[in-house]
Amino acid sequence: MIKAKPYQVLPLIYSHLMKRIKYDKWAEYLFTIVRKDCSNKSKVLELAAGDCSFAKYFNKYYPSITVTDLSRWMLKQNNYIKNKVCCDMLSLPFKSKYDLIYSNFDSINYILSGKSILAMFNEVSRLLNDNGTFIFDVSLEKNSYVHVKKNNRVGKYKGLTYKQTSTFNPATGMHINKFYIKLANGDEYSEIHKEKIYSFNTYFKLIDKTSLYVSDCYEAFSFKPGNQNSNRVLFVIKKNIHAEI
Length: 245
Fold this sequence. Notes:
Elements: E1 2-3, H1 11-17, H2 23-34, E2 44-47, H3 53-58, E3 65-69, H4 72-75, E4 84-86, E5 98-103, H5 114-127, E6 128-139, H6 141-150, E7 153-157, E8 160-169, E9 174-182, E10 188-196, H7 200-207, E11 212-219, E12 232-239
Parallel strand pairs: 1-10, 2-3, 2-5, 3-4, 5-6
Antiparallel strand pairs: 6-12, 7-8, 8-9, 9-10, 11-12
C-alpha cells in the first residue's frame, strides 16, 4: 500500500464520488447572493477550486475567474478554466485586487488551526477590493454525524476499486476520511484527509480579529439564517475599510 498525498490519487475517482452534486444549481445560488455587488466584469478568485467543476458553471456569470488549489493533480483534471494556479490559500501569490473571492464545499475545514484560518482571512483581506465580497462555506458538527453514516462505502469506477472510511471525534473536532484505491494495474494507494470541525462562533471570533466583518450568514444552499445547529453554513464577508488591525 503506497501512502499518497491528499488529492494525489483521489482525482481519478473524484468526479464519480461527486456525481450527485448539482454544480449548475450551486453556481446559480452563489450568483444570486453576489450579483447585486459584482458585475460580469468583476475579477474573481476561487480558493481550493479542486477539479474546477464549480468554476465551469460559475464562469458563465463571471468570465474573469482565477482558480487556485493546493493539489496540482486536481487542477489537471480539466481545462474548463484557463487561469489556474497551484498554491496554498494561507500564502496567496497575488498582488492584484479582486472583487469577489470565494471558497466552496467546506474547503476551509481543511485548515487545521485557528491561527492558520486567521492567516487565510488576512490574505483574503489583503487581496479584496474595498467594496469586494468574500464567500465561504463550512461544515459544522451536525454535518459530520451525517457523513459518518453515509460515507463509509466501497465501489468501482473505470477499472478502479475503492473504499472510504469516515470517522469523527467530537472531543478533538477532527473529521478524518481515509481512501483506499486500487488501480487496474494492481497498485494500491491510501490517502488520509483531515478536516477540523470548528464551532459556529469560532468563525465570528476569528473574523473579528481582521479587517473583515460578517455581512450575512445562511444555512448553505438556502437563505435561512445559519446557526450552531445547522449542518453547513455559508458566510458572506465584507471589508471594513475603517478597521485598524
